[in-house]
Amino acid sequence: MTHYDLIIIGTGSANSILDDRFSDWRVAVVEKGVFGGTCLNVGCIPTKMFVHTADVARTTDTSARFGVDAELRAVHWADVRDRIFGRIDPIAASGRDYRHTHPDNAHVTVYEGEARFVGERTLRVRPSDGTDDEVITADRFVLGAGGRPTVPDVPGLSTVGYHTSDTVMRIDKVPERVTILGGGFIAAEFAHVFASFGADVTVVVRSGAMLRAQDADVSSRFTELAAQRWDLRLHRALRSVYRTESGAALELDGPDGSETVDTDLVLVATGRQPNSDLLDVAATGVDTTAGGYVAVDEFQRTSVPGMYALGDLSSPYELKHVANHEARVVQHNLLNPHQPEPADHRVIPHAVFTSPQIATVGVTEQQAREQGLTYVVANQDYAGIAYGWAMEDTTGFAKLLADPDTGLLLGAHIIGPQAPTLIQPLVQAMSFGLDASSMARGQYWIHPAMPELIENALLNLPLNR
Ligand SMILES: Cc1cc2nc3c(=O)[nH]c(=O)nc-3n(C[C@H](O)[C@H](O)[C@H](O)COP(=O)(O)OP(=O)(O)OC[C@H]3O[C@@H](n4cnc5c(N)ncnc54)[C@H](O)[C@@H]3O)c2cc1C
Ligand SMILES: NC(=O)c1ccc[n+]([C@@H]2O[C@H](COP(=O)([O-])OP(=O)(O)OC[C@H]3O[C@@H](n4cnc5c(N)ncnc54)[C@H](O)[C@@H]3O)[C@@H](O)[C@H]2O)c1
What we know:
Elements: E1 2-9, E2 27-31, H1 37-42, H2 44-62, H3 77-101, E3 108-119, E4 122-127, E5 134-143, E6 147-149, H4 157-160, E7 177-181, H5 185-196, E8 200-204, H6 216-229, E9 231-233, E10 237-243, E11 248-254, E12 257-263, E13 265-268, E14 272-274, H7 276-279, E15 307-309, H8 320-335, E16 350-352, E17 358-362, H9 365-370, E18 376-381, H10 386-391, E19 397-402, E20 409-415, H11 419-422, H12 424-432, H13 436-441, H14 452-460
Parallel strand pairs: 1-2, 1-5, 2-3, 5-15, 7-8, 7-13, 8-9
Antiparallel strand pairs: 3-4, 4-5, 6-14, 10-11, 11-12, 16-17, 17-20, 18-19, 19-20
The structure holds flavin-adenine dinucleotide (FAD) and nicotinamide-adenine-dinucleotide.
Nicotinamide-adenine-dinucleotide binds at residues 152, 181-187, 189, 205-207, 269-272, 318-319, 350-353.
């Protein structure tokens, strides 16, 4: 049984912790899948490369409004897929190679296989190549094992077959009919991709809206636009799935009784769950929350001294920038256990890369009400700024919430072109305590650029000063 100073489980964000300050530590890295984790291989990066390609394909849908007569002749899915993974796969391979062979990693042993705790600070690794299990121990651990898609237990679903975001980007051709189960991030992004590439997309949602966690105005605008583009089935429960001659059929229960959707591909996008169960963290005494996340304190410490957790395994945010931030915190705290620094979870933005794009930071209006905050609201349509005229945008807007007395921003919600880029100065203002009036009038805003959307929204806030 080999003993280490540190064992790192998972090569997503946790893989970025090691640097030359750890060169005299004896370290093991355990990875059961592809090096680089979810974001690089099956998450943020390939999805955004597909989304950008979808945006390019879709320009012809709106070109007529500019007097431009354009036509989409074909999308060569296999070429798109191979371009994307032709860039990503070598990055994963070189990350693996670096850990295995580079002199920087002379003190690091890589275990390629599935880790599972079998006792206090004791890990059994089942090697992917089928060789014998190994049991290893360590003084310190970083638990960065991420999460996996949640698949609802629906009769017929497993036997008929389905995709998740883990597999759907590697398919061989765009199916004629794609049905997506769920109305969240992944549904919104892949519906845009497959519809832009020519598939007939059906989205099956339990509730009455897509992206329900967003501000209600954003969610309802997005739902309205989604219903114009896709066959959006709201208030539907999936009862069963069965195979048909041409593909699969989904039996749904909805407001008008039962109905059937025929499809070629089912994409399950009903959320993700942390891998704490498969890792059996309980066997080493690590506590979990009701949602199955590894419980951590503000310093990313678990309930067992010397064991840290980060990213999707412990964070319900399930965002790469949060996992990366937490990895930096864990790195500091491993090196400075007596002067630990806390993670900063005050102002966490996110974006949904669909069409139109969506970006959010801070509280939604419904959260502001629930929390009893005193707030004022301002809206600004893209249609009301010069660049919005240039883009002929008629549906996008920015919505801000602020404290009327201090002018400090409480939340910002944008739906429309470049929303994830436009929101960044608002994230900065919230992070550094810049009030809305100073932000609006204490700097120049390039005219007639899109950030005038933000300038105008700030000026529209009915502040008490
Ligand atoms: C389709 C999709 C799109 C996304 N898009 C975005 C986006 O645009 N922006 C954004 O911020 N976030 C996005 N995310 C979320 C983001 O990918 C995750 O928050 C992030 O990758 C989490 O990083 P992590 O290091 O915690 O986990 P991961 O990157 O999942 O790494 C965990 C690693 O641990 C390994 N592992 C798991 N269990 C074991 C075990 N028992 N033994 C050994 N190894 C194990 C896994 O194989 C994996 O490599 C997206 C997610 C998905 C699914
Ligand atoms: N742009 C980004 O940052 C990005 C993109 C993709 C994914 N992600 C991350 O990945 C996570 C997972 O994405 P997701 O879209 O799967 O989750 P999600 O939580 O965004 O959406 C899940 C959807 O599935 C529905 N649902 C849940 N259980 C269901 C069931 N049994 N039957 C029918 N519907 C059900 C929910 O109501 C919701 O509409 C997200 O939480 C997000 O943090 C981020």
